[in-house]
Amino acid sequence: xxxxxxxxxxxxxxxxxxxxxxxxxxxxxxxxxxxxxxxxxxxxxxxxxxxxxxxxxxxxxxxxxxxxxxxxxxxxxxxxxxxxxxxxxxxxxxxxxxxxxxxxxxxxxxxxxxxxxxxxxxxxxxxxxxxxxxxxxxxxxxxxxxxxxxxxxxxxxxxxxxxxxxxxxxxxxxxxxxxxxxxxxxxxxxxxxxxxxxxxxxxxxxxxxxxxxxxxxxxxxxxxxxxxxxxxxxxxxxxxxxxxxxxxxxxxxxxxxxxxxxxxxxxxxxxxxxxxxxxxxxxxxxxxxxxxxxxxxxxxxxxxxxxxxxxxxxxxxxxxxxxxxxxxxxxxxxxxxxxxxxxxxxxxxxxxxxxxxxxxxxxxxxxxxxxxxxxxxxxxxxxxxxxxxxxxxxxxxxxxxxxxxxxxxxxxxxxxxxxxxxxxxxxxxxxxxxxxxxxxxxxxxxxxxxxxxxxxxxxxxxxxxxxxxxxxxxxxxxxxxxxxxxxxxxxxxxxxxxxxxxxxxxxxxxxx
Length: 512
Prior knowledge:
It contains 17 helices and 14 strands. By secondary structure, the chain is α/β, with parallel strands linked by helices. It has three domains: 27-99, Winged helix-like DNA-binding domain superfamily/Winged helix DNA-binding domain (Arc Repressor Mutant, subunit A, Orthogonal Bundle), CATH 1.10.10.10; 156-399, Type I PLP-dependent aspartate aminotransferase-like (Major domain) (Aspartate Aminotransferase, domain 2), CATH 3.40.640; 404-511, Alpha-Beta Complex (Aspartate Aminotransferase, domain 1), CATH 3.90.1150. Strands 3-10-9-8-7-4-5-6 form an eight-stranded mixed β-sheet, with helices on both faces. Strands 11-12-14-13 form a four-stranded antiparallel β-sheet. Helix 8 (213-224) crosses helix 13 and helix 15 runs parallel beside helix 17 (493-511).
């Protein structure tokens, strides 16, 4: 006797999935991603019925719960839906299809147009491309004697994490929009700190919290300069400043630096009506000299008489190993300024050298008359620095941790400078002369007569040693012989000694 025919449901499509039990991705996730991709690509038609979870699990050789988890995820995200007696089906319209613009058909790869024929780039954009590439760091780990690398190994990770965790646990983090100038508590902490350590005279309202000192240079170039304005820059001087001012269309006026710092008289002869002077008076970059008191007063007198601005970059003032630094220009101007006169000095500082550069935390002190202009300009650029970092740094300074950290890292970097000088004396004599410096995180190495610093730099790079040729910091032709600028603050003594050995081998090939 033949019984009644069993009713068959709609045929299930063949779902071609591959799962790898040895992969790091969980099995349920592999099933989920495979089905999702099949739906989005059209390999699994919209509205098509899927195999049962039991059948699919058998086909794939996985537990049924694995498939159930994948199906549940797809249902919750809107890719699948189920009906009583109808099984599980792909939705008619997947959520990604509703949110995504269809991709054009793939064609052959298009070659990038050369920079000189780029069709949609502005004149300012060209300047940014041509000059900004100088500031892009090489990928990978830092290597001796790379500039601008702080003592990352000394960063107080545990204390920073404790302060951050405390803020988050008690819900004391402002996640809304903030004043472009920064968190009030941090601005007050910075004002107090620079007043004590550097003699800055300011109120918290004059402080702008920024994403590093480079942003200070960018904002100054945008707010205070017009295309064609003359700007004094130190010769040799910091490339980052050169890039920012060139990108704003300024005309750079290189002013010689001697043992007393910027030669103000030369600047007045070259461009007496300059709009801005950029200086590093406390520890000139890269030569390391300190601007004399007489030059400082001369510079302030010129700015007051001509109506020019001075940008004082105090990039590494915390790292002084002998004696006390002269008070900053900003504080000196406040003392010297006559009643009724406005200030001309903007003061820029950074936490990238004392903490870590990856935090991107810096600040600028601006005269009262510029506060509103810089707050408005900052709001256009990026609104403000991320709030959680500002909260933690305010606590870090306010509770005294920053002062203790500076004392520790200053002693550590003094030891590293001593290690570099000692290793150079033993291995580099006759090739390069490296003398100690009472401040900073880099040393200047004068090459033996006749040795080209660019060739020396390239030979060192070939051996994994990163430095800078001094001539690269000049706009004109260097007056003195070649030299290399060597950063040491971010490298432990064994790395410094290995770097010196490789540098010696590189210089030996250049001197032949």
